[in-house]
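COMPLEX REQUEST
Ligand: beta-L-arabinofuranose
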Amino acid sequence: MKIRLLAALGFALATAAVARNPEFQGADPHAMFIDGELWVFPTGGPGGSWVADRFGAFSSRDLKTWRPRGEILRRDQIAWIGDDGAKDHFLWAPGVATRDGRWYLYYSVGPQNPTPSRIGVAVADHPQGPYRDSGKPLVTGFKTTDGEFEAIDPMVFVDPRSNKAYLYAGGSAGAKLRVWELNPDMVSLAREVPVDQPPEFTEGAFMHERGGTYYLSYSHGHWNRPDYSVHYATSLSPIGPWTYRGAILTSDARHQGPGHHSFVTTPKGETLIVYHRWEQRAGPAPLKGERQVAIDRVRYAADGTIRPIVMTDGAAAPTLPAKAVQVQTVH
Ligand code: FUB
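STATUS: Structure written out below.
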């Protein structure tokens, strides 16, 4: 019994990282609801304990306490990563998708120099993994005298109307968006889909659909400067053409450089934006400290446009209705 009580206490402490806006240290959060629980797949993680050589996942039932879901993929599990001969490789900006009961983790491998960045994909039977890499890069960037494509910031959207899966990717140097249709296996490309470049696009594309309108949202600006912000465009299809709608999430008096976000819909139908920001007042670039994951409410106007998002702190942050707390014991 003593062991059980201690284990329960240890579990409670592990999940008691109570913080609401910011939620925890991390960046580029890809969020999704899984069985009524919000899961976040970020770059990095709480307390700086998750670095750019692996990914972790974190989940919450109430958006007040976060449960670490463990390490889901490490750099040394990606066999092809050293094939380019570069000395350093870092992992960041994951995107997760699910189809037919399987889970797919898409991720960026950089930097872009001296060799091109790449996007990989790993597959699992459960959202917490273990994920097994597909064995080769899905997309490789390039840099020539004609231009540059940095293969980073993957996001996969399965169109609820056509059931086709699209990969959106690209950013930073080159600041170019590219879109591919994936094969049903979700780990290979069927074809590239030519798309218009959305105005003010830098990186971090995210697609969601609501009432027949497709919302392409993305980061604009420099990742560690106050101009980093989220803009969006709409379309009647997931591949454009886009109607640019402007900025919806920009620096304010207390928070700088909000960006690389995802949209989620709660079990009660409320839309939230999960993003990262820097907890500081306006000042000279580069921004100092670490990026923090935050969650805020999304409001749509009657015409379907998104109202400017208000960044909140502490208890003003959105939460989910409390459910019975599960206490984990060791048997
Ligand atoms: O976290 C690394 C980079 O910063 C991402 O690729 C960008 O989207 C930006 O958030």
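REMARKS: The chain has one domain: 2-324. The mean pLDDT is 91.
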